[in-house]
Design a protein that fits this description.
By secondary structure, the chain is mainly alpha-helical. It is about 85% helix and about 0% strand. The chain has helices at about 5-35, 45-75, 80-105.
């Protein structure tokens, strides 16, 4: 693979983090706005289950990106392995950020 792909996988975690942020809070806003539009109301439990599912998918994608970087790091040369190790650490930081932004989904009630 190319160095460009190595750099892209290094930043994949923060791309996933930003997409997760947009998806979680966008879906939350849309689900809570449905009654004002005259559409059927979703129960708060349904909204929470939907958001936890989306959050779980993004966490799984994060884990996948970390696994891919770690596997590629083992077979790469010394210089490329350095970039890939940085990618693993960046992805670990991004998964921590994703855990933080998704934690309110678990604890706070939806659509009051």
């Amino acid at each position: 693979m190319s160095r460009t792909f190595d750099t892209l996988t290094a930043g994949a975690g923060f791309i996933l983090w930003s997409l997760c942020f947009i998806a979680l809070y966008g879906l939350f806003s849309i689900a809570c706005m449905l009654p004002t539009l005259g559409l059927p109301v979703m129960r708060p439990q349904s909204v929470t289950i939907m958001l936890v599912g989306v959050w779980g998918l993004f966490l799984a994608a994060h884990v996948g990106a970390i696994v891919v970087n770690m596997r590629r790091c083992r077979v790469a040369g010394e210089e490329r392995a350095f970039v890939l190790r940085i990618g693993v650490y960046l992805n670990l930081t991004a998964i921590a950020a994703t855990l933080v932004i998704g934690a309110p989904v678990l604890g706070l009630p939806a659509c009051r």
